[in-house]
Specification:
five-stranded parallel sheet; six-stranded mixed sheet; 33% helix; binds coenzyme A; disordered C terminus; alpha/beta; globular
Length: 199
């Protein structure tokens, strides 16, 4: 638990030049408070203390303005900058070293009407993904490793590894992995296994 907290604090220093010192980070980063309380809520959720888990999550939202469902699975060194208005749904899955800004929703796609059921309804973010302020990622889509989503984008389709997507509907502006794979083909003429990952 403390090792995780130490890693979280270190990741804030690495990603936010405004972080002054450890005390500053401990008292003034709601994203750190939210992920710490989420870890407790998630353990309670998995041990079937579901109402208590919900209470911890509600308290966290009250204090930080960040709503994370206790069932959401979140990796290491997760950083939510600013935080207010972030919503993360029950079946969201988040890898390591992911960064979200304020106003991001990792939500379901349905809008009232017929219930989508209890299955996977929320996005999966692979390791190293960054999502800009106000972006909405909706439905059980997958953002591949190190993908970037622009501020205020609305994404309802998968985004490949290394790609940057922005706008409404989210579209890909560049894909560093694709460029690297194309370069490799040009220099060696050998098809690469990773080529299958990009569209
Ligand atoms: C998406 C993003 C990562 C792209 O950064 P980049 O790779 O450096 O891309 P560029 O700045 O070169 O922009 C490329 C083009 O996309 C446009 N663009 C950039 N971000 C955009 C966005 N969020 N929505 C719509 N268009 C955007 C640029 O105007 C530019 O258009 P042009 O080619 O017609 O001039 C970045 O612009 C972004 O949105 N970051 C979010 C940061 C954030 O949320 N900060 C909050 C801090 S409090």
């Amino acid at each position: 638990m403390f090792r995780r907290l130490k890693e979280d604090i270190q990741s804030i220093f690495e990603r936010d030049p405004a972080a002054a010192n450890t005390l500053d980070v401990l008292v003034s980063y709601p994203g750190l408070h939210a992920i710490t309380m989420h870890r407790l809520a998630h353990v309670l959720w998995n041990k079937n203390f579901r109402l208590v888990a919900r209470l911890v999550s509600s308290l966290s939202r009250f204090i930080t303005g960040i709503e994370i469902h206790p069932g959401a699975r979140i990796g290491r060194r997760f950083f939510i900058d600013h935080g207010m208005g972030v919503v993360i749904g029950e079946t969201a899955e988040i890898g390591d070293d992911v960064t979200l800004y304020h106003g991001v929703t990792l939500g379901g796609k349905s809008l009232g009407g017929k219930s989508p059921g209890k299955g996977k309804r929320h996005p999966t973010l692979e390791s190293g993904v960054s999502v800009g302020a106000g972006a909405k990622i909706l439905g059980p889509v997958c953002l591949g490793k190190n993908a970037k989503i622009g501020a205020n984008a609305v994404v309802t389709k998968d985004v490949p590894e290394g790609a940057t997507a922005l706008g409404i509907p989210g579209h890909i502006i560049h894909n560093k992995l694709k460029v690297a794979v194309n370069d490799m083909h040009q220099t060696s003429g050998t098809p690469s296994k990773v080529a299958g990952l990009v569209s």
